[in-house]
Design a protein that fits this description.
Largest sheet of chain A: none
Number of helices of chain A: 9
Helix content of chain B: over 70%
CATH topology of chain B: MetI-like fold
Strand content of chain A: under 5%
Shape of chain A: flat
Oligomer: heterodimer
Order of helices and strands of chain B: HHHHHHHHHHH
Radius of gyration of chain A: 22 Å
CATH class of chain A: Mainly Alpha
Chain lengths: 237, 276
């Protein structure tokens, strides 16, 4: 028992600091991916509900591809594909370089792309739940297209889409563990290193699982708080 | 009173106005052009890199990997479906001693990454080798394939239990009461009245769960099970040829799309009595 506590403690004897830095990396990656995924997902949803056939189809192709590929494969495609692509492009310009893509960046792009594909579906169903009269009301008040979207549609859209987006956030948080495979020092990788050195695999992977659980519980509190704050307008006195 | 003396002659309809070049149209065409470029680029790339020797060598491995993926997911889904029944019963139980552990089980397996669960079972349990050997279970846990099956079964059982619970709770109370009034036993009620209705609700989530498992199963490559992704990684590490990953993507997309379409057909067929 004492040995277990020593292993998990902070300082030179324990793995506490390494694992804590892993938690920061995991949370950082998820937080960095979120805005990227949300913005791209929102634009995709706009494209999917536009009257323009080409735009709609382009967005559908995007969703089909990135919803169908395993996240791990998307990650590898981005990680190796970008490196090879950039190297080819640079050598076409007549230079010779070896470029290492940062695993954080590759993870952010890959997870963001997958997140946006799923988020676009959530946004799309939320768009469908908003009656056309809301747009017409906006135009009747003399608001432009962009203003109607920002001031009238978006506040309602967020309220409707929030439960779905909350689920996607939970999935995103778990998917960040995959990026450890390409060397990002997140919770799982740090736990793996600690497990290999100390030969206490069960302890460290168990700790990693519990840390993910704690993150999930914390985020469910935050999501609940956001839900409550956007539901204020629903309150009838 | 005036009378029309002359009729207006029939005229050609006004010309259809040309579709304006809106931002949406331009960006749509640009996006489609980009996809076309990507698609043609990939096809040209695969043609340029087509090497009969490599294909001969690696195509059978890809198919064996594909088979490993399919059997792995198939076995886990079936075992998970069986394991999900007691979990669902626990979740729906009024007794706190049953519902508490079931809730914790489901929360743990849905709240942590599948890859961490896999590592916990494969590497973590490996640490208890002497105890496992004493129980005669070491042979089971030494093999990554068994560990993968165990981890996936436990994981999907948690998800399937939630699907099943949601579906059962979506059946109105009156259905239970009606069955009671007809004098059906509990088992008969479930088999003949409740499950047929609940399964229609559960059909789509089950399909999504299978797709999630197929996508999630790629991680077994990391614990050296040579599924489709494992074979891909092995082929890449030997050839350093990027087309290995492109082929894997094509395979995965085909399976997932085929399954999705199959599920649409299935759903249409099974709910045809509900259509008006």
């Amino acid at each position: 028992m004492e040995q277990t506590l020593t292993l998990l403690s902070f300082g030179p004897d324990g793995w506490g600091d390494q694992i804590a830095s892993g938690v920061l990396v995991t949370v950082g990656l998820a937080l960095a991916t979120l805005p990227l995924g949300l913005v791209v997902g929102f634009l995709l949803a706009l494209a999917k509900q536009s009257d323009e056939k080409a735009l709609k189809m382009a967005a559908e192709i995007y969703t089909t591809i990135f919803r169908g590929l395993p996240e791990l494969l998307t990650l590898f495609l981005v990680y190796f594909g970008l490196q090879i692509g950039i190297r080819e492009a640079v050598s076409a310009l007549g230079f010779e370089t070896q470029i290492e893509i940062n695993s954080f960046l590759a993870g952010m792009i890959a997870l963001g792309v997958v997140f946006s594909a799923f988020a676009s579906e959530v946004f799309l169903s939320a768009f469908r739940a908003i009656p056309a009269g809301q747009y017409e009301g906006g135009y009747a008040l003399g608001l432009g297209k962009v203003q109607t979207m920002i001031k009238i549609i978006l506040p309602q859209l967020i309220r409707i889409a929030l439960p779905g987006l909350g689920n996607l956030w939970m999935i995103l948080l778990k998917e960040t563990a995959l990026v450890s495979v390409i060397g990002l020092p997140d919770i799982l990788r740090q736990a793996g290193i600690a497990a290999r050195v100390s030969k206490e695999a069960f302890l460290f992977f168990g700790t990693a699982c519990l840390l993910f659980l704690v993150l999930a519980i914390l985020s469910s509190f935050v999501i609940r708080a956001i839900e409550r704050s956007v539901e204020r307008s629903e309150v009838r006195v | 009173m005036s009378v029309a003396k002359q009729l207006i002659e029939a005229q050609a309809p006004p010309p259809i106005p040309a579709r304006p070049w809106t931002t949406a149209r331009i960006s749509g065409l640009a996006a489609m052009a980009l996809w076309l470029l990507v698609g043609v680029g990939i096809i040209l790339y695969l043609f340029a890199e087509w090497d009969p020797e490599k294909i001969d060598r690696y195509a059978p491995r890809y198919f064996s990997g594909l088979w490993v993926t399919i059997t792995l997911v198939g076995i886990s889904i079936v075992l998970g479906a069986i394991a999900s029944i007691p979990v669902t019963a626990g979740r729906m139980s009024q007794n706190r001693w049953f519902s508490g552990p079931a809730y914790c089980y489901v929360y743990f397996f849905r709240g942590t990454p599948l890859i961490a669960q896999l590592f916990l079972i494969y590497y973590g349990l490996g640490e208890f080798r002497p105890q496992l050997q004493a129980m005669g279970l070491w042979g089971f846990f030494r093999d990554p394939w068994n560990c993968a099956i165990l981890a996936f079964t436990l994981n999907t059982a948690a998800y399937q239990a939630e699907i099943l619970r949601g579906a059962l709770q979506s059946v109105p109370r009156g259905q239970f009461e009606g069955a009671r009034a007809l004098g059906l036993s509990r088992l008969q009620t479930y088999r003949k009245i409740i499950l047929p209705q609940a399964m229609i609700v559960a059909l789509r989530p089950y399909g999504n769960e299978i797709i999630l498992m197929i996508k999630g199963s790629a991680i077994v490559a990391i614990i050296t099970v040579f599924d489709l992704f494992g074979e891909t990684r092995r082929a890449y590490s030997r050839t350093f040829d990027f087309q290995t990953y492109i082929w894997a993507a094509i395979f995965y997309l085909i399976i997932v799309e085929a399954l999705r379409n199959l599920w649409n057909v299935l759903e249409n067929r099974l709910t045809r009595h509900l259509k008006r």
